Amino acid sequence: MSIPTHTMWGPSVAARRIACAGSLKAEEEVLRKAKAKEPGFVITESVYAVIGSAAHRLAELCLEKDTVLEAEDWVGEQLFVPMQDGLDEPIEFDNDQVETWEDVCDKGYLVTVDNEMAHHVQSFVEYVNDIRNHSDCQYFATETRYSLDRWLPGNHGTADAVAVVGKDLFVIDFKYGKGVKVEAKDNVQAKLYALAVLDRFEPLFDIKTVVGVIHQPRIDNISSCAYFVDDLFAWADDVLVPAYQASVSDNPARTPGSHCRFCTAQPICGEVKDHLQTMIQEGFPILDGKEQATQSEDGKVYVPLDIAALAKDWANAVEAYAVKLLESGVDVSDGTQGYKLVHGRSRRDWADEDIEHVLESAGIEPFVKKIKSPAQVEKELGKKTFSSQLATHVVKKPGKPTLAPESDKRPAISSADALGFEDETAGGSQ
User: Fold this and answer.
1) Are the beta carbons of 164 and 180 closer than 8 angstroms?
2) CA–CA separation, 27 vs 128, rounded Å?
């Protein structure tokens, strides 16, 4: 079976490479030692990455030429996702290459398509087909690998969907995750996909503008941004190439920041630890009561939320790393004490399969009658059926107030609205 090689400067990691030149060699070292099974170095595929790869494969199947099947037709079917290092790019594979299903778990994962995956993938497929079927569409391709050798030797990108419509080149990136909202504006990954596709097709088509699209259906996010071709090439020369050269230099600098979140070297990166220690000492004086919060000229109170976010990501990464080590049989210590894996809080459950009848005999009603949520019903029925039959019976209530940067597109709520929400949830009657 042919599995694509891992690309260490591909579109999905390019933003991290640009922000931190040292991340390339740091992650290469982690990968090398993990492959050599050195103690203290482990890499495992995230379940979210595996499911995301299955969703990409389903989208590819639905977008294949002359296909008559929709995503919902695949509900209950299994898709094979081969195991590889990283899973940064959508995986290209052929089910016919699997010799036997009995030993498939030694080579990858079987992911069963459910209604949730089907209707989110179908949303992406319908969006892409609207562009694909445009009267001025001259070219369309899905899940195609494009070379980045012109700027990043030995690297490539796999674009989810590409279409040339008139003088516009559409590069559409499918995001199945929902943990982080992704915007198309100044999106490094989208720019690299665009450059890779332009490098192949600019001589063939009169392309003036590239439209990068992020389609993230699980959080109803469709974001787009248009780039002039000349501006993209200038960005590649002024930003991308110097960043690549810095990353392959003898001693590239490591620069901690929010881009560390998905770096495989983060848990063992001394620069991140030192950076956090310094920033916490300088940025959190209000925690020990020694100083009051500082106020800027525009009247805003300084709260080091950026440091808090990095510290939270780092702490989560360190704990997850320790768990992986313990699971692989490596002893773990923080320098003062050792650690072990234990069972968490236990949950009681019924031991008898016929407990329903036992409870009824005791005069107990076995079932709690609770109406299913709209999300549960939509998952069972599928998006189309739910929308046609039940959409008019659904209302959207505002969510709990949450922090967001001012660049977030959602409108701000007033302090009175926020307080009103809290009073309402607490049972207040103002």
Assistant:
1) no
2) 34
